[in-house]
Amino acid sequence: MQMKTDAGNKVLEVSKDTVLYEQGSPCSSMFLLREGTVGLYLNYHTPQQFQLFEISRSGSSLGEMGLFDAEPRNATAVALSDCTLVEISQENFPSFIEAHPEETKQMILDLSQRFKMAIQEVKNEQLIIQESLQALKEAQNNKKDTLKDRIKKISDFLLDIPEDVPPELYLSFNSRFHGSML
Fold first, then answer.
1. What's residue 169's pLDDT?
2. Which helix (H) or strand (E) holds 77?
3. For residues 87 and 99, what is the distance between their CA atoms, to the nearest angstrom?
4. Where does 27-82 have alpha helices with state H?
5. DSSP state letter for 54
6. Distance of CA 98 to the CA centre of its chain
7. Which CATH superfamily is domain 2-99 in?
8. Which of 26, 23, 25 is closest to 49 using CA atoms?
């Protein structure tokens, strides 16, 4: 990686397959993509690996949560091509805003877009959950009906109640000659 600066922040030139940051690692900076493509992954290099999305538009940001809330990284960022990025530290963020108002505006738009995507994902998942719960409820109702049908068939077989005789009369008559049926 070669070192240059932009408004006091490091400009990084990284080669394809470079891991920019790892999920769970501490952080206090974010990145602004100047050139190339970066992939964001959950559980990178594990059987549960999942690519969240690719970032390839110049001026797009990644890793902002680390800059704003100092939480551990929630994903792994990997260069999918040779890339040029600006690593923006907490200390130099104000000077970056002053030096690059348009890119700062783009960062805010990126965050807004990601928030909209997250809301849409929540809506989609909620719909899937509602459909699954409805299917489960229908399956339980069908199971209850089936169980009721089975019990009726067994009781009809065991009691052998003639079709034309009301069950109450049959039970009353049967209990006189054979004792209580209950």
1. 65
2. strand 76-79
3. 14
4. 64-69
5. E
6. 36
7. Jelly Rolls (2.60.120.10)
8. 23
What's the token pair of residue 22?
Answer: 């790892």
User: CA–CA separation, 10 vs 6, rounded Å?
Assistant: 6
User: What pLDDT is recorded for position 87?
Assistant: 94
| Separation in Å, CA 90 to CA 94, 98, 115, 116, 151 | 8, 14, 22, 25, 70
Length of the chain: 182
Q: From residue 112, how far is each of 5, 8, 90, 126 by CA, in Å?
A: 27, 26, 20, 21
Whole-angstrom distance, CA of residue 101 vs CA of residue 108: 11
Backbone phi, psi, residue 83, to 5°: -135, 155
Decide: 66 and 27 in contact? Cβ < 8 Å. Answer: yes
Enumerate the H helices of 51-100 as residue ranges: 64-69, 93-99
Tell me if 70 sits within 8 A of 31, measured CB to CB. no
Q: How confident is the model at residue 178 (pLDDT cuts 50, 70, 90)?
A: low
Tokens coding 126: 């909620």
Reported as a single tens digit per residue, the pLDDT across 44-92 is 999 999 998 899 999 899 998 877 777 899 999 999 999 999 999 888 8
Specify the pTM. Answer: 0.66
pLDDT tens digit sequence for 109-143:
888 988 898 899 899 999 989 988 888 888 777 77
31 strand-pairing partners: 62, 87
Q: Where are the domains of the chain?
A: 2-99, 101-182
Flag whether pLDDT at 148 surpasses 90: no
